[in-house]
């Protein structure tokens, strides 16, 4: 490894699912002596401060997010607003460019790591700073949706286009249903702040940056990363698994007391991240499916559409029937700590990249319920390419799933005697062992830093 240490500025998209993996990378780089200046929305600071393991080297710099008409007062991140308002959060982030420029002129870092702020490469080039897109969206998703081979800017993008992979895309298990393809095409081409489409923003970032980095290993996503590197003619940087350190704090007593009531590897734990909101009928099918399994379960979700509380949306008589074995909670839970608890045997996830990364280094079996965006392609890669989870079957025309579909998927992974159960358990154990292998993270971080050195 090169013994040179770098000063790296980081400016991730204003979403906790992006900010958190940037913090994890900052910690790994700081372990190796690199200095990090981390820009983030001012009020978000309190939510991530505790994850800074190297405050002597990682400095959080709060950015005042300007108000944009149409946003609620004080809104800073995607967690503060529904999905249709995310482009306005992006516009607000774009409005911080003068402040970021002033900080970069003062700090003079060697690199800026970013993802959605597509104006940064032009700015950094003027200042003599190298820019790196650090992408927390999976390389399979980026390659499938945003490959230059699709010529999205010239031709546009339709659902029909997305039923087939782009030219040269690696052989994979990614197959989209028409409703998924149409939804992804709509999101990819929608205006995503400051009059730039989501696709246009990312294509600009990938085209003008100095290098592209992914939070992954060659062994898992190599073909997709190499495809992206060739398509954009950029050096590819692999950060490795960037497994977050086990939290220093213990599980709160109320959760410990609850989870300890159940035998090892019997509990179903379901959570869908900080932004996913189910329709009421799908929420009810989900929890009724858990009831059908006969297994204990803990569900931590936001209240479904139109419901003030999660309890008010439960099916009639449900709470009485599952009393003592089924627990529904409408607030935030310490996901990483709960996944590590010995009682948890099955994790039902929306397939966000962060949740999948945490699940892969734990023992729980995976049931996949993707909702939108990169979650869909993540699910196909996990269930198809890696064969370490089972996706809940959905209706072909609209993606509706029933309680029986949920029950079937959970039973499939929890039955250690079935062929499918044996296969996903063996594959999960293999990848867990690989990701936690001594020396793997150091190898990747050292190689990552060497490639940064080559850019200088």
TrEMBL record:
Q: What is this protein called?
A: Glycosyltransferase
CDD domains in alphabetical order: GT1_Gtf-like
Family annotation (PANTHER family): GLYCOSYLTRANSFERASE (PTHR48049:SF167)
Q: Which PROSITE patterns match?
A: UDPGT
Which InterPro entries does this entry report, sorted A to Z?
UDP-glycosyltransf_plant, UDP_glucos_trans, UDP_glycos_trans_CS
**Keyword terms, alphabetized:** Glycosyltransferase, Transferase
Work out whether the entry's keyword set contains Transferase: yes
Tell me where on the tree of life, at the top rank, the source sits.
Eukaryota
- This protein's species is Gossypium darwinii (Darwin's cotton)
Could you tell me the EC number(s) of this protein?
Answer: 2.4.1.-
Family according to the record: Belongs to the UDP-glycosyltransferase family.
Q: Does the keyword Plastid apply?
A: no
Q: Where are the transmembrane segments?
A: none
Q: Name one GO molecular function term.
A: UDP-glucosyltransferase activity
- State the top-level EC class: transferase
Which Pfam families does the protein's record reference?
UDPGT
